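can u do me a favor
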């Protein structure tokens, strides 16, 4: 496929220089903004690898958030960013992209951490968005982590993984917060190896994140170093703020809602997400199960995920 627009650039976003990646087969397409997880776990390499077919129908925009990936600078360590700052960054970008591409509103895809700030942004300024798509949908941090931890504990017991079991028992989360970063990494590593992050996956956390980055042309080795610094720092210093979020309090969104959820997701447990979705009021809402996925259906079942987005978003797109 050839693309009329295929570039990356830096944009000044609320006083911070941030990098975006844009791809579209032609001009004048509806805009689709991808808001990655983490904090700090950028996903443009996955979007460009698996979902460039969507560029036939949408202008795809991948954004390396404040302090993340190509947007990382040492200045981010001078203070701890807040959840609210990232929400304001989304709103700035939504206005910027709408103006640049001549559309009234854009669509937003929020994955994991991105689903927190995505929902908060849509709730605050629904006039900027024609649809919200959630993947690995976060709801309430304390409940999410309790269920995620329980899954790992039970799997370790079933598998006879005594080393992991002992490590897990030393670091249970309280109100979503682990005793230290090491305890959290133990839980996330078990989650990855036991299939609660990638269904059927057996790779640990680091290898599972690193290998796709090393294989892509979207990030240089220097970018990967910045990526690692940003992800490590942000996930550490922002964690209590992240898990302190309670999206369960949000009972209505003023835009169409599409949730693409892995049946086996125990990072942001699907049962909790479904409970929130069922109670949510919205102009329209669609829940799509991905039976062979956990936390990232866009990577685990990419063809189906692209097809679902193309079909569902086409019902709501606005053209000039």
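np, heres the sequence
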């Amino acid at each position: 496929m050839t693309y009329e627009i295929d570039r990356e650039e830096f944009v000044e976003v609320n006083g911070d220089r941030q990098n975006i990646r844009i791809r579209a087969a032609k001009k004048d397409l509806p805009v689709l903004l991808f808001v990655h997880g983490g904090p700090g776990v950028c996903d443009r390499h996955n979007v460009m690898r698996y979902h460039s077919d969507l560029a036939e129908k949408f202008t795809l925009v991948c954004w390396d958030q404040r302090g993340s990936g190509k947007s990382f600078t040492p200045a981010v360590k001078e203070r701890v960013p807040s959840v609210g700052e990232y929400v304001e960054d989304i709103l700035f970008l939504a206005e910027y992209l709408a103006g640049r591409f001549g559309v009234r509103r854009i669509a937003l895809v929020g994955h994991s951490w991105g689903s927190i700030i995505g929902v908060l942004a849509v709730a605050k300024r629904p006039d900027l968005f024609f649809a919200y798509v959630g993947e690995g949908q976060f709801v309430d941090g304390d409940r999410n982590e309790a269920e995620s931890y329980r899954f790992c504990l039970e799997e370790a017991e079933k598998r006879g993984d005594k080393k992991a079991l002992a490590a897990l028992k030393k670091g249970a989360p309280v109100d979503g917060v682990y005793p230290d970063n090491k305890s959290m990494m133990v839980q996330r590593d078990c989650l990855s190896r036991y299939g609660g992050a990638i269904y059927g996956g057996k790779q640990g956390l680091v290898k599972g994140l690193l290998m796709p980055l090393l294989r892509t042309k979207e990030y240089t080795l220097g970018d990967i170093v910045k990526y690692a610094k940003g992800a490590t720092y942000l996930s550490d210093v922002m964690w209590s703020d992240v898990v302190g979020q309670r999206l369960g309090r949000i009972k209505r969104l003023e835009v169409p809602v599409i949730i693409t959820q892995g049946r086996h997701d125990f990072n942001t447990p699907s049962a909790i997400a479904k409970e929130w979705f069922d109670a949510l009021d919205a102009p329209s809402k669609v829940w799509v199960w991905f039976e062979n996925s956990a936390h990232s259906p866009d990577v685990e079942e990419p063809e189906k995920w692209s097809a679902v987005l193309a079909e569902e978003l086409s019902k709501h797109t606005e053209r000039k």
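The chain has one domain: 5-140+219-314. hope that helps!!
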